[in-house]
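User: Fold this, then the next.

Assistant: Folding the first:
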Amino acid sequence: MNLLSPAALSLLAAVPVLLWLALRRARPVVLAAGTLLIWRRVAARAPAPAARRHRLDLLLWLALAALAVGALASARPVLPGAAPAPVVAVYVERLLPSGEDPQLPQVRSSAEREGGGAALEFFTAGGAEGMTALNPGTLAAELAQFEAASRHASARLLFLATPEPAAARLGRVLPRLPKPLPGCVFNIEAGRERLVVRSSAGPVTVSGAVPAGSSVRNGEAVLEFTPGAGDISVRDGLGREYILSRRELRVGLGPDWSGANHKALFAALQATGDGLPDLWLGAREGTPAVRVNAGEVADLSGAETSFDSRHPLFAELPLAGLDFVADNRLLPADSSVQPVVTASRRGEVLGALVTVSADGRVVRFAGDPFARAPVTAGALLLDNAIGVVMGVRPSRRPAYETNGPVLPSRRAALAVPFEPTGALELRAAPPAVTELAPLAAVLAALLALGAALASAGSVRNPG
């Protein structure tokens, strides 16, 4: 048995002090008194205090035992056991966000060889069979989680896609792959007129688009295509397929959207009128919608306009070519809408020229600034107005919707083999111990309770 706090045994010095006090208290007390014979006779007839001394002796021994056992408990006695087997924590950088990660069996075999018979605990982002899950994030964030979760380990192994200087301090760093992934696609940029696919060097098959160029630099391949009329299929070297479905903007035109400028702006949207409209222009019904000529005739001579330039309707918009008061119309007063452009004369607000509905699905113009504005300014205003009611501007709306597995990161797709760094140094694990302090403390408490009961009994029966 070992003691974790042997200095606490100094409490045993109180044992002889308690014993001395008890013996000193047991001595007869001599008092000066008269020499009357009757008191001598009473003292001679007094019963022997054997029972009283017995109770006093029991109280003393219980108190001494409680003190000694309490001191032993404070010294924290332990029974040493066998040292546990060393544990090696293994971090595996995930390459593919979904599906079976490549080369995992090879990683396990390599970890077993490096561990030299030690117990292995695997960690990876999102978890896997037989692996503890880490929250997916940046490599730095995952390494921080791994470090915190593996404090108990005797050593660490890290399998990374590419070398990372910050990982060297944690343990031995090994390559995640023995060779690069062939044609692993990590980025797809699909526009109406251009498709760009970025991947690691290797076979990538694209159907539904015409090749327009390619290049390979530092293991990264860039493939360019001209999109066709229908859907596009991209299949990488790992057999993962991505389907790009064209997203047509379907626009319904109302009676107020029929002028020459209106037709030019509709053509610039590259939209279609087929199917159920996603948006209405110049119509009196339907949402989402951009409505014009929605105001009532009013005298706006000498009126000035005011607006919040931070509103999305005016993003990147040159206001010099726009005139919101030329039609001499004002929108009816409505407390449920948000006025965006207002007209005022000599500081008095006349009314709203442009409003946005409470749900943000309808933009109303009192007049028709699109009919007279230069095509460039009108196109920007229409682009912003559609962005307000649909949540995304047509100029930034993806031309294709991608369906398929989640794309890996560029770092994961371009993983390469490299020379291992660092050494696996197994720290000796502390032996397992069984601490006896709680048991000794309980025993001391029971002895103290027994002493208290014995003391109470001696008070009730003084003899």
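Now the next one, as you asked:
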Amino acid sequence: MIRKTNHIKTIFLALAVTSLAFVFSCASAPRDFDPNLKGAQLIVDPECISLGVARVLGTPISFKGKGFKPGDSVFISLLGVEKGGKKVDVPLADAAVDKDGSFVAKVATLSKVTEILRADMGSNAKNENIVIISKPPIPEGTYTARAVSMESDIKADTTFTVKGPSVGDGIKDWLGGLTGKIVKK
């Protein structure tokens, strides 16, 4: 029994260290707008995510912008290039610009599933939402997140990094598969 208990403690310690390593590899203090820049600006929080299904779903992603035309709307996409030169244009969010020329656009769960994970949503026998994985997610890399005004030619960019899933993410996704919340086809 002592041997089994030590083995379980070792597994949990390894999981904790792996999870902390991921947290610190993508973690950074939230950015703020540069007061020295004139014109439109865009920031994203967090600046980095990993492609674990549970991690993407559980991480709130929000874009904040300023310097846009009051009363306008913005559309936010991730732009990049896959290996082989194929362009990536991932629509993520939209928002209304307030009277101060600012906005906050939160990425909805459906956008996370269909656009970042390139998966589908469904429901199980308990009528709970599930994620159905049938193809790979967007490629790892550093993307340009771009906010584009709908009524004017105002644009603003920032970087958004996408990393592969960590070991901890793999374990969470495996557990999600066991519980029927994540289905791979």
